[in-house]
Amino acid sequence: MRIDPRFFNQFILIVAVICIAAIVITSIRYIGKQEERFLDRLEGQKLADLTFLSADGDTLQMNRDQTTVLLFWSTWSDRSLDALYDLYSWHDKYPYVEVVSAYVKDSDEFASVYDQEEKQQFILVNGTPAYQNLRVPGIPTAIIFDSHGEIHAVEIGYRDVPVWHTLSPGELPSETQY
Q1: What is the pTM (predicted TM-score) of this model?
Q2: Which of 34, 123, 126, 145 could form a cystine bridge with 68, CB 3.0-4.6 A?
């Protein structure tokens, strides 16, 4: 079947609109499925099961018996840095909460600029192995583990009020516990 040359431009336009609509719909569905699969992989995951790398390249495993905030972030993501700065401010109010600041897909030299060495409960690690193992759908991503090492809350992406602000005072360790 041949197309009359007078209608060729309209035909191409209709095909283009249909293709763009198909791409948009499948992309949205893929993002939703990716987050759903990530949350399924997290089910039953414990903090002690995750592997991180120190600045020296040594393998680290976190085995904490307190509430721990794990933040996957990167220096090349403005939203990640916004989340990291908010976490710094929040941690100043709650210095006895363990924070694992896990930079991903980034240089050790760039990430070390953001280290909070003066804070005992703030640990900077290379989180790329854990990030890839969990197939985290994006950064920043925050995971809060309770005192038993089990997942308490998850936040994918940046929010105006990050997930660590939702911790109630009863879930936070106090200064007298240390």
Answers
A1: 0.78
A2: 145
